[in-house]
Each structure stands twice: as structure tokens, then as C-alpha cells.
Amino acid sequence: MRKSEIRELLKVTQDPEIISFAGGLPNPLSFPIDDLKGIVQTVLNNHGKVALQYGATHGVNELREAILERSVKEGMKGGMSMENIMITSGSQQALDAVGKIFLNPGDIAMVGLPSYLGGINAFRSYEANLIGIPLDKEGMRVDLLEEKIKELIKQDMTVKFIYTVPTFQNPAGTVMPGSRRKKLVDIAHEYNLVIVEDDPYGKLRYDIPPVKPIKAFDDEDRVIYMSTFSKILAPGFRLAWIIANEDIMRKLALCKQAQDLCTAPFSQYIAYEFIKSGLLDLHIMRICEMYKPKRDIMINAIKNYFPAGYSCNKPKGGMFAWVTLPEQIDTEAMFLDAFKEKVAYVHGKAFCVDGGGGSSMRLNFSYSTNEQLEIGVKRLGAVIERKMKVLCR
Fold first, then answer.
1. Model confidence pLDDT, tens digit, residues 235-250
2. CATH assignment of 5-30+281-388, given 3.40.50.2300, 3.90.1150.10, 3.60.10.10, 1.10.3660.10?
3. What would the DSSP string read from start to end of 98-152?
């Protein structure tokens, strides 16, 4: 097991003078505190005796039904029932459970290059061999994925699943198009694999219409889908969900019983009443209205303050910008220089299972104020410029 780079960074960025682009934190001004005051009272009035009690491992039925209804509307295949849905204590619990039930030491999981650090750490804790597949502007290169799977099978190596964040990928911000999602399902069918689809950011859309999840292309129940309320309601509830076929779900439930027995019913009833009242979709719209200008401020500031030679995506949703600097710059080593200037980020190596990403960094734009975004990027640009001058001597 390894320490989380992001969790460790968050410890050192508690100084209020530090402008932190490091964490994947929602903006606290987005939390619907006034709405929740009434919702909490409703929960206590209508569900108090069960909301404050232990709950079922799979979760509160009302919330699972609400998630089922929304999932079908998003295009996930019919025939799905409430039994295919389990509420988890955050997506990290779901990732850990998937690792526990699928991975024996030495088994292979295919991940993006770069990929979400929380998934990497969860799977590594079960001694998995993680194989990275490069991304392009449309997400995981499924052509390279298939080539690598064929190569591994020839070597008698056991590939268990493909892990992907297809919509506004963390950290790269890419969106996998429908054709590539369908191809991914076809590959899983061809080689008898499972796809783990992690979708925390899919609702945070700024420039594109809704994108069907990979699960919508799944005719064989090969896709394990997970999402969370952390980015669309509040992370403090520690509330997420996982959708899988009944055989996998039985294993997941056994795993969860050993982890925490059940997710807090009180949080679940709050989420249910929030959905039932019609507030969730309105709230998501407000979050997007808050974050889109923040993204634009960061991207424009990068153009204005970073020296030439970098590349940076303009994410169409989500919470992150992925920046790659000239290859001679080591962003892990440069972090201390940036920290002295009171700005923080996450270096790219943390997201790359092959040891790459040394000249890249992930920048979060959702948490900081608009003024901090401008100032922080300016500070970071000055650090990069000094670093480049030293290297070019």
C-alpha cells in the first residue's frame, strides 16, 4: 500500500496563504446549505426512526429506486433492477471492493495513462500489476488497448478488467466518444473481460450535450458502473453508488459487509429527498454555471502567464486542466519551488503507472476563487519560467 500523493499534498496546503490547485475539491460555495436545512428537517420528520438506525447493506430502497430511474433515462440498458444497485460510502469504497473481489496478486488491470490516483492506489493494494494504456484527445486508445491485451494473453498473463474514467477524465479531462465506448465493450466481449466505468464528473458539462455512459452500450452485463454524489451534492455525505450484474453484486455486498456493514442511512435519505424534491438537477445546473467561468479563467491565465512550450487541454467539463511542460522540467521536483511561491498542484507521475508523466501536472479549477485562479496561475507561470531559464543555461 502507498500513501496517496493528493492526500499528502492536502496536508501541506492547509496554510490559508497557499493557493491550492492540488485537490479535487468542489467549491464550498456550491453546497446547497439553505436547501439542505429544509431537507434534513423533512428526513427527520418523515424517516427519522429508520434514518438514524442501521441500514441494509445494499442501501435505502427509495434512493436506489431513484438512481435506477435516472440511470435508465441516461440510456443504461433495460432489464436492470434495484437489485443491481448498491450504495457505497464514497466511490473509493466501490473501487476498493472491485479490487478486492477481482484481483489476486499478479493479476492485471488495464488503466489509462494517466489515470485516477484513487483507482491506482486501490488496485495496487491488492498487489495487482497495472498496465497503462496511453490517452489521446478522445480518451483511452482502444486500438493500443486491444494490442496489449493480445500480447498479454500470448504470455499467459491473467487480465481481469479495464478501468476507465471516460467522461471528463481525471486527470486529463478527455471525453471518450460513443464509437470508442462501443469498441471498448466489443473488446471486453472478445476477450471475456469486465469494464469498470468510473463516472464522477459526467454531470459537470460546460460545452457539450450529455454523453451516454459505456454502460449504455453494454448488452452482456460486463460493465460495472460507479458514480457519486460528492461532485453534484456534497462530498461530506460520503455517498456514491455502484451498478453491476447480480453475480458481481453478491460479491460486492459480501465485501461491503466486512468494510462498514452499511452506508449511513441518514445521508441516503437526505440524497433521496433532495432528488424527490426536484432540487438535484437545478443544483447541478448551478454548479456548472459556477465552474465554467472558473475553467475559462484558468485556461486564459495559463495562456497569459505560462512560457511557450507547454500543452494544455481545454476540458469541456469536470474539474481539472492537464498541463504538459517541456520534457526537461520535472514537475515533482518543481513542486517545492511552487510551494515556496505559495501555489500547489499535483505532479504528473502520481497518475502514471509506468513512471511517466514527469513533465505534466494536474490543476484543479473548481475550488479556488476567481481571483485566486488568476493569481495562482501567474505565480506558477513565474516558477516555470525561472525553471526553464536555469535548464537552458
1. 999 999 999 999 999 9
2. 3.90.1150.10
3. HHHHHPPTT-EEEEEES--HHHHHHHHTTT-EEEEEEEETTEE-HHHHHHHHHHH
